[in-house]
Amino acid sequence: MATPKEMRRLVAGNWKMNLDLQAGSDLAKACVDALGSQNIPVVFCAPAIHLHALSGIVNGASNVHVGGQDISSHESGAHTGEISGMQLKSVGCSYVIVGHSERRADHGESGELLAAKVSQALANGLTPIYCFGETLEQREAGDEQKVVALQLQEGLAHLDVEAMNKVVLAYEPVWAIGTGKTASPAQAQAIHKFIRLWLDARFGESTASTTSILYGGSVKPTNANELFNQPDIDGGLIGGASLKPADFVSIVNAY
Ligand code: 13P
After folding, report:
1. Would residue 16 count as lying in a domain?
2. In this structure, what CATH number is given to the domain that contains residue 227?
3. Which residues line the pocket of ligand 1, CB cutoff 6 A?
4. CA triplet 38, 87, 46: central angle to 5 degrees?
5. What percent of the chain has pLDDT over 70?
6. Residue 32's pLDDT band (boundaries 50, 70, 90)?
7. Gap between the Cα atoms of 72 and 61, Å rounded
């Protein structure tokens, strides 16, 4: 029987705004070929314009999924440039990132907006990967738990237990994203433990023990194993290293 931690495992690549269609297709094919059949769910969160093609590529691969990087807070209608949950679902997505720090910073996404995006994802049968994390300034001020609790509260507190059980969390300290500076395994574990206690207090013990909490921020083949071995770290949301098939595959295999 799989342990609760084994049940929570997940590794997602966030390609961000990189790769043209050919390069993205080549990357997905190389990863699928190298991963073979494995037990750990893997997600490619690719630019929206590639998602349909990627769904065709991963179709039939065991435990490999496609996800969006953002979702509209609206259901449909006059929202030029936005992509709805129904549209993501219709091109084969099963996951979507919500609240990445780059969207919070570049597009001023508020807690209220993100709560609506989480709800739209769930309403359309997509698993939201809800991202949050403190800046360097906030960590240096010793405010990381306060910031994380507020971001969790804003994006998720409106959900009931059944809905929350369908959400994946990704703790991504802003100071570790794309900087080469990783949170130490002990630093990351401390916050992940805090997140699980927050889940327990708000949604109960069962939700706390089944929710996947990923770590993101300069995860590499050299540090993945130690991070993933922490009791409350259930996998990773991988940026830069997800663009290189060998690195991404070796991170997945670090489990
Ligand atoms: P890096 O792995 O490039 O630091 O990016 C992390 C990230 O933002 C994933 O969403």
Report:
1. no
2. 3.20.20.70
3. 14, 100, 172, 177-178, 216-219, 237-241
4. 45
5. 100
6. very high
7. 28
Over residues 35-59, the pLDDT tens digits come to 987 889 999 999 999 999 999 999 9
Q: How far is the CA of 86 from the centre of ligand 1 (A)?
A: 26
Token couple for 240 = 């830069």
Query: Looking at the domain assignment, is residue 97 inside a domain?
Result: yes
**Best residue among 96, 237, 243, 248 to mutate for probing ligand 1, ranked by most atoms within 8 Å of CB:** 237
Q: What residues are annotated to the active site?
A: 100, 172
- pLDDT, averaged across the chain: 97
Q: Is the full-model pTM beyond 0.90? A: yes
**pLDDT recorded at residue 181:** 85
Q: Predicted confidence band at 182 (pLDDT cuts at 50, 70, 90)? A: confident
Give the domain range for residue 123: 70-247
In a domain, 33, yes or no: no
Q: Is 238 helix (H, G, I), strand (E, B) or coil?
A: strand
User: Residue 92 is encoded by which pair of tokens?
Assistant: 């084969």
The DSSP letter of residue 47 is -
- Total tally of structural domains belonging to the chain: 1
Whether 173 maps to a domain, the answer reads yes
Cβ(127)–Cβ(135) under 8 Å? no
Please list, in sequence order, all residues whose beta carbon lies within 8 angstroms of the beta carbon of residue 237, skipping any fewer than 6 positions away. Answer: 12, 14, 97, 129, 131, 170, 172, 214, 215, 216, 219
Ligand 1 atom closest to the CA of 240, numbered from 1 = 3
Q: What is the three-state SS of 99-113?
A: CCHHHHHHHCCCHHH
Pocket test for ligand 1, best of 17, 43, 103, 172 (most atoms within 8 A of CB): 172
Atom 5 of ligand 1: nearest residue by CA position: 239
